[in-house]
Amino acid sequence: MNDKTTLLVADDHPIFILGLHEVLRNSNRYEIIAEAEDGEQAIKKIREYKPDIALIDISMPKKDGLDVVAQLSRWANAPLFVLLSLYDDEVYIRKALAYGVSGYILKENTHKELLKCLDAVRQGERYLCTSIREKIAVSDNSKLKLLSQTERQIFSLVSNLKTNADIANLLSMSPRTVENHRFHICKKLNLHGNNALLKYALSLDDAN
Amino acid sequence: MGGCDEVRLKVMVLRLVSCLLILYCLSACQQVSVNAPNKESLIDSIHVLDDAKANSNFAEIQRLGSTQQFTRQEHLDRVDIRSGNSVIWVKPVFSQQVKKNKNYILEVGRPTLDKVSVYKRNVDGSWKTIKTGDSVVFHNREIIHEKFLFKISGPALKKFKNSIFLKIQNQGITSSTLKLLEESEFHHDDQQKSLLAGLYFGVLVALLIFNLLIFVSVRDVSYLWYVGYLGFILLFLFAYSGLTYRYLWPENPGWANRSTYFALMTSMALGLGFTRSMFNLTELFPILSSFLKSTGMAIALLAVFGLFVDNTFSSFVTPYLALLVILIILLAIVKAVMAAYKPAYYAGLGFIFLFAGSMMVILNKVGVLPSNVLSEYGLHLGVLFEAFLLSFALAYRINYINEELKLSNQIVMKARKQFSSRLIDFQDQERKETSATLHDSFGQKLLVIKIQLAQILESYGIQEDDSKVKSITGLIHEVIDDVRDISHALHPHQIERLTLKEALEDVIFQSFRDTGLKYIYDLNGLEECIDSKSKLHIYRIFQESINNILKHSEAKNVEFKSRVVNQNIEIIIKDDGKGVVGQSWFNNGDFVMAHGISNIRERVSSLNGSIHFESGQRAGLEISIKLACKKEV
Predict the structure, then answer these.
(1) What DSSP character marks residue B73?
(2) How many CB atoms lie within 10 A of CB A194?
(3) If you average pLDDT over residues A56-69, what whole number do you get?
(4) Which residues of B touch A132 (CB under 8 A)?
(5) Residues B157 and B103 sit within 8 Å (Cβ to Cβ)
(6) Helix ranges, B39-182 (H)
(7) Architecture, CATH, for domain B3-34+198-409
(8) What's the CATH number of domain B42-188, 2.60.40.2380, 3.40.309.10, 3.20.20.370, 3.40.50.1820?
(9) Mean pLDDT, all residues of chain A
(10) Per the CB < 8 Å rule, is B447 touching A110?
(11) Same CATH fold, B42-188 and B3-34+198-409?
């Protein structure tokens, strides 16, 4: 009946939601079908209205945006999540990515990038706004700077989904040495747990 | 704390000495009292004539003596002197046991009588008169002694009837003992008594000096009151025993009496002062305290006044004043004991000993109690016990004050800690609110302004690339950034959204990422041990330490560790920088202020934790913090 993409907006500042209406008014592709003022309301309304995309602020009373995403991410009818926030902290962005959000936009870039983001997300892509992309890249670079030449080589091979045996062959070293290098890389990047290195390498690729 | 031990030691020594002294006194008393009953009085009866007009001459008295005008007294050993200005003539009648071949001594025991004259008949029948008394120069005495002593020859006593007459004049009401003793026996007894008296006064003077020395070391004014009080009581006893006249001013007749009253009244005034200071009345009962103060001052004035007027005045007011002082002091004791002021127990007991002793002596004087060691020396014993008990009380009081001081110090420390912890919490809360306001109100409104501006520009067809538009939107952008930065500086919003571990790892990473400094961290146990209230403190401690490392340390490597050990969490922040020079660096105000160490300390103290710094020249700085786990592990 309605071929417009349905949206739910959760923000504790009515004035900002008003602004969003303004931005989306000129587009006929999207329709805001529900609004929420806090995290708990957001969860309730998402379950009720089942929107295609949920635009969620991070800083909200009762439950913040990250919690909302975390709670609903395993739900079968979960919408695509786009976080809208004033915060440009890397730690939030990484966390959001880990929860599987589809987009992250700084509020100050809303009018410029919201539609772009929504379009991309609708297509099943992941979208981070420009300034965040830059920020993450800088941070990743500085992290990778900690690695030695060999370690960086191994890191990039890991991100290309090579196994230890492959890497050992390619760099003509013993699998045990590769193992050792991976251990040091993990230590330098402060990664813990199984496959943490692989996950991190993939998330970098994703973000960039 | 050394002073406290010192006082404790002194108290122990004092206790030991006093126990020995009490033992000695008891054994000495026993000796005296064992000897006493063996002696049968050599006086059969005492006959008294009250010459109210004081105009009879001796010849007349002699005549009256033989015509039974004298009235026979009830007591055998005491003469009551009841009238103010009259002359009392005493005619003792001696027992048949008086031996012809022995010499005797007649003792008038009250040394403060104004005039005592003896008329005694020699063997040849002639009369000899010896005039003595407090108002007569001391060396007029037949025998140099503080009591009035007269040589009586046994042969004369045997030969003549009515061979001894005593003429006593005294202002004020009193009584005196009258004894006839064999000369050798008297000397033996007297030696014993002076030994005892010497010991008695010696011990009390030693106690006085001892307490004076304690005053010098502890500077508690109660000791000074005690020394003054005890000093004047001693002077009183000394005068009362006639010793002042014998030893201190033998050339000043009349002073024995005056000094007795003066010393007694002054000791009362000082006793009140002592009570005030000792029982802490100024704090406990201000009204009673000021009453004591004014009474004490009035008594002191009366004491001085008494020196310049007729002695009748002092002898009249002293008993009433004594009664008043006793009542006041008893009241103070009762009140202090009721207020559970512990040092009052000893002091109260001391005063009660004194009062009991004095009561015995007074009751003996008015004829209610028979003469015995207690009733004759009650005052002396009372003073002795009192002196020791009050000295105990003083020492105990110092201990008590020390304990109180320790306790109140603890309370103050606790309150200070609570206050500073509350101050930090309050500050944190305030900042959090300000931060939220900045973020929610300013930030959001600026955003809306920016968005709406963009839409207006769009509707007017103005391109965003326009330089003027760019400068305006750029400015808004900058303001938004500033608001975000200030808001974050005021309160790290991460704390609310991330686990403490995540937040700390973020702050470590963000702080060091472009510095070239190598860092490792291994943070464990934070979620288990740190509750949500304490998160911010830990976060700020990390921020502060990182700040120090970046600004001051010149370190190349940094290490952050946390782990749970025995229900405690240990946090270690270690760098390999230049360290902190000097041993007493943590007392150095500049360092503490400049490096925010005081802030870290306060936060740790607010978390009831302990903090330890370890550093040396070029050895880096290691901060280790230990906190009790807030949650169950």
Answers:
(1) P
(2) 7
(3) 86
(4) none
(5) no
(6) 58-66, 154-159
(7) Up-down Bundle (1.20)
(8) 2.60.40.2380
(9) 81
(10) yes
(11) no
Q: What is the pLDDT of residue A95?
A: 82
Tell me the mean pLDDT per 10 residues along chain B, length 633: 57 68 60 50 82 76 75 75 74 83 84 84 86 81 85 83 84 77 86 88 91 87 91 89 81 79 92 89 87 93 88 83 90 86 83 86 74 79 88 85 88 85 85 84 81 79 76 84 86 82 85 80 83 86 86 83 87 82 51 65 84 76 84 54
Residue B495 distance to chain A (closest CA, Å): 12
A chain contacts of residue B452, beta-carbon cutoff 8 Å: 19, 22
Q: Smallest Cα–Cα separation from B132: which of B114, B145, B120?
A: B114
pLDDT of residue B270: 94
Residue-level pLDDT at B2: 44
- Written as one letter, the residue type at B380 is H
- Classify residue B580 by its DSSP letter: -
Instruction: Give chain A's length.
Output: 208
Of B444, B447, B513, the CB nearest to A142: B513
Taking CB atoms and an 8 Å limit, are B448 and A16 in contact across chains? yes
| Contact between residue A119 and residue A52 where contact means Cβ atoms under 8 Å apart | no
Q: A with B: how many residue pairs have Cβ under 8 Å apart?
A: 76
CA separation for the pair B217, B213 (Å, rounded):
6
| pLDDT, position B584 | 47
Beta-sheet pairing, B557-565 with B518-523 = parallel
Domains of chain A: 5-131 (3.40.50.2300), 146-207 (1.10.10.10)
Q: Are the Cβ atoms of A190 and B439 closer than 8 angstroms?
A: no
Comparing CB atoms, the residue among A23, A59, A91 nearest residue B506 is A91
pLDDT of residue A158: 82
pLDDT of residue A147: 77
Residues 6+ apart with CB under 8 A from B276: B225, B282, B289, B292, B293, B296, B332
Model pLDDT, residue B6:
62
Which of the pair, B174 or A20, is modelled with greater confidence?
A20
**Separation of alpha carbons B119 and B123, rounded Å:** 13
Q: In what order do the strands lie in the sheet with B518-523?
A: B518-523, B557-565, B568-575, B621-628, B610-615
Residues on A contacting B at a C-beta cutoff of 8 Å: 12-13, 15-16, 18-19, 22-23, 58-59, 64, 66-67, 86-92, 95, 107-108, 110-112, 139, 142-143, 146, 187, 190
User: Helix A65-72 and helix A39-49: axis angle, to 10°?
Assistant: 40
Q: Which CATH class is domain B492-628?
A: alpha beta
**What is the per-residue pLDDT across A95-108, written as a single tens digit (0 to 9) for each?**
888 888 888 888 87
8 Å CB contact of A18 and B440: no
The encoded tokens of residue B631 equal 């949650």
Is residue B223 within 8 Å of B394, Cβ to Cβ? yes
| For residues A19-28, average pLDDT | 80
